[in-house]
Inverse folding.
């Protein structure tokens, strides 16, 4: 079927001799293949183009590590960027269902899997979160669809609102709301009618239902196999109704996951769940790493990326250590340290792990020196130029103002960062003079 991306890249890089760093041309050649792979995975052209441009910028000039090939390294960079792009904020599976009865509005086109997904989510909430859930079908045009939800409800042991012939969707929504409040349900789910394509009547109807229910979550259910169409559907629904998340169904099929990337890039809405089969427990919380691996189209991507990651980190540490011993510690190093700290769960948690630092970690948290500070510091470093990062000593007052403004912060906050950098740099020098022993220990420890 598809030639895997790593195979493609392997071929490209065989002809290249290994140099110290990924050159612009190497990266461009490799990224042509990446672009083809993305398009084959059903990512839309503008999204693929944009994505490749971002990777090009990140990859060019990166030093090539000894134990991975340049092709593998590009794949890793691509994988990391894919994962980052796919990831929304927070936990995708955590629905906002506090303050009962919490309404969840389910929207989407007919055949996308809306009714099935409604039941899947209801089952999950009932079983995993012990919620009392009420489901209601608003598909007044298709009595069979209303029956279908009732049958699914029986299968999973979740209540459905009794069907009253002749009611309008808005009337059903009102009745569901009243019933949910009266009978003490935690959540009520409204399964709206679908159409084969988006039309004005459907949108007006969903809008009216939305206004009655004021949903806490509005989830769009789309068929993940429909690629670009799914993205267009999401754009339309979001514009008109406002969605809080997307469920991609049929991800058990041979779709390559590209719709997920386009979806995130175009709508900015988080993907919350993926449907992986017809059975009612075939619903998974969205995991960006999995979809990234799928888009890249290779089973061994995870192992490969982990290996590359380890190697890159070890080599980076080694290089950094050598430079620190010579008393070179610039803003790029500081940035790396801060990012490392973020990865480990932020300043408070890192300090909390060190003996004797637990008390200080509390003070850090109380003084507001937490992750927000780390984010601010990164923002400041990002708005420096390359030269400034390499040699922060050159910063003049006017540049400082510009940098602070660029990061949306005060000059005093930049001065704080510079002071911290000087202190760390002095400390590194001192440790370096002790024949590197202490520094080596500190970095390995
Ligand atoms: P609706 O018209 O949007 O409500 O769609 P339905 O919920 O009736 O689903 C249409 C068909 O798709 C049914 O046969 C479902 O069993 C099937 N379906 C729904 N979700 C999935 C999924 O994640 N994977 C697979 N393979 N089939 C699904």
């Amino acid at each position: 079927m598809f030639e895997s991306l790593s195979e493609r890249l392997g071929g490209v890089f065989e002809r290249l001799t290994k140099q110290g760093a990924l050159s612009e041309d190497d990266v461009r050649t490799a990224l042509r293949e990446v672009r083809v792979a993305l398009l084959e995975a059903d990512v839309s052209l503008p999204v693929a183009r944009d994505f490749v441009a971002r990777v090009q910028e990140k990859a060019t000039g990166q030093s090539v590590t000894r134990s991975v090939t340049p092709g593998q390294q590009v794949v890793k960079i691509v994988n990391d960027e894919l994962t980052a792009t796919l990831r929304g904020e927070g936990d995708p599976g955590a629905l906002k269902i506090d303050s009962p009865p919490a309404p969840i509005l389910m929207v989407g086109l007919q055949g996308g899997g809306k009714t099935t997904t409604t039941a899947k989510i209801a089952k999950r909430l009932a079983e995993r979160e012990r919620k009392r859930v009420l489901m209601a079908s608003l598909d007044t045009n298709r009595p069979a669809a209303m029956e279908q939800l009732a049958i699914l409800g029986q299968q999973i042991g979740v209540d459905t609102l009794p069907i009253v012939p002749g009611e309008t969707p808005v009337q059903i929504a009102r009745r569901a709301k009243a019933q949910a409040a009266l009978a003490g349900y935690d959540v009520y789910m409204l399964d709206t009618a679908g159409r084969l394509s988006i039309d004005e009547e459907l949108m007006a109807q969903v809008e009216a239902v939305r206004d009655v229910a004021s949903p806490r979550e509005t989830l769009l259910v789309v068929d993940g196999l429909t690629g670009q169409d799914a993205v267009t559907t999401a754009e339309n629904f979001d514009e008109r109704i406002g969605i809080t998340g997307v469920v991609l169904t049929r991800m058990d099929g041979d779709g390559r996951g590209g719709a997920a990337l386009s979806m995130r890039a175009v709508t900015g809405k988080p993907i919350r769940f993926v449907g992986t089969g017809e059975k009612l427990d075939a619903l998974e919380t969205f995991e960006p790493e999995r979809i990234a691996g799928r888009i890249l189209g290779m089973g061994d991507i995870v192992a490969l990326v982990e290996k590359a990651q380890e190697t890159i980190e070890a080599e980076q540490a080694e290089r950094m250590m050598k430079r620190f011993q010579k008393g070179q510690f610039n803003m790029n190093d500081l940035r790396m340290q801060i990012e490392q700290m973020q990865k480990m769960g932020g300043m408070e948690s890192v300090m909390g792990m060190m003996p004797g630092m637990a008390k200080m970690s509390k003070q850090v948290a109380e003084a507001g020196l937490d992750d927000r500070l780390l984010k601010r510091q990164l923002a400041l470093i990002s708005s420096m130029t390359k030269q400034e990062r390499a040699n922060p000593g050159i910063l003049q007052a006017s540049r400082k103002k510009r940098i602070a403004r660029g990061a949306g912060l005060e000059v005093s906050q930049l001065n704080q960062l510079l002071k911290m950098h000087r202190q760390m740099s002095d400390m590194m020098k001192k440790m370096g003079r002790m024949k590197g022993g202490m520094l080596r220990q500190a970095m390995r420890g």
Notes: DSSP finds 20 helices and eight strands in the chain. The domain at 5-89 is CATH 1.20.120.140 (Four Helix Bundle (Hemerythrin (Met), subunit A)). The pocket of guanosine-5'-diphosphate is lined by residues 108, 110-116, 194, 249-250, 252, 275-278, 282 (CB under 6 Å). Residues 254 and 314 are 37 Å apart (CA to CA).
